[in-house]
Amino acid sequence: MTQPQLLQPREVPARAVTDPVLRATRDALTLIFGPPDDRTFDVRLWDGSVEHPSRLDSVAFTLVLRNPAALRRMFLPPSEIAMAEAYVRGDFEIEGSMEAATALGDEIAERLHAPKTLARLTTHLLALPKRAPVPDGEMRHTSGLESLGPEHVPQRDAAAIRFHYDVGNDFYKLWLDENMVYSEAYFATGTEDLDTAQRAKLDYICRKLRLQPGERLLEFGCGWGGLLLHAVTHYGVRALGITLSDAQAEIARKRIAEAGLADRCQVEVRDYRSLPGEGTFDKAVSVGMFEHVGRAKMREYFAQAHRLLKAGGLFLNSGIIASSMPPFNRWHGWVARTVWKRGTFIDRYVFPDGELLPLEEVEHDASLEGLETRDVEEMREHYALTLRHWVRRLERHRDTAIRLTSEATYRVWRLYMAASAHAFTVGRIRLVHILFSKPDAMGNAGLPFTRTAP
Known about the structure:
Structural class: alpha/beta
Number of strands: 11
Distance between the termini: 32 Å
Strand order of the largest sheet: 7-6-5-8-9-11-10
Radius of gyration: 24 Å
Largest sheet: 7 strands, mixed
Helix content: 40-55%
Strand content: 5-15%
Order of helices and strands: HEEEHHEHHHHHHEHEHEEHEHHHEHHHE
């Protein structure tokens, strides 16, 4: 996998500590990250002084505290969401690998779980200024969704999707591939460019579904239409895609019309629960959509797929799932969610109302609705590599991204995607392809004996 670009240490010596704010900052840094020589990164303070680990010639990133209030805004109270919001506001900067920086979250949480450490840290943080001399800026968040009803009712789901995609088609074009595929690419070797790997993923899905000319294909959450176009063009199917995003549908319909495929490929803005028909489709696919369905609606989601498929039909569900936690880690999991507030940042600023389920729960809910699991493939390493491509492309287009949206939005997405790459790498979250079948009355699943059979 691609390694982060290394930064050379800055030749600025740490100054003698006479200012009480500087002294409190350095004491707090030691409690949070350990002594400078134990770190793997540089810290540069607002006065230009640098703390550099003397044992290293180079580091993956530099943490830049841009004002005297930065640490207080980051860690009082200490939580993942406080650090994320301080970054989005611009209280601190990460120069270099954002992914390497996000990997520190677990280390920080471990260091700060002891009450005595927290008490000492709080003393130092309270010695820092309350307010930073920088404005909060524009921070898009999800306040107001509660007024639309409980999670995962249709009107609230539609608003949540609009929140995510209304950041603008032009923004996504900056860092997605040429087909605007917003899901994991498929890397045979890890050295492919993003466009090649995304085309390979589209074809991989079509082959898993064993698409045949003339079949009817349904895609839940069709995005900008990349998979639909590939399936219709290369496999001769007739396809229907649905999305809750008007912005996505606009682009998808335009691309379909330009390809001259409007007679065989349609896109509708509608909720998956409102699709009519029974036994209408030979095959169905869902890529990166079921994370938004919710635990309470998962059986309804699979029931819809079962109802819409013909007997002997196949359904490929590709999406992010939660790692199953062994019993001895359940307490740590509760602390991470409740105290450290893990996941709050994504819910508030990126993907509202998302909910990840473990694999066993997903398969159980599908089986209760008559779908049979035929194949499961872990894809998390592919998503980690995809996200690294996206982050690099976004960083290269930083100025344009800020012009199209805002600096806060650019920072949200840089942080979100880098942190996700780390989470996939260490296995905190997973990405799986699950191939389901709807057996006919005689139990025929519509699949050959082996994966490799034609």
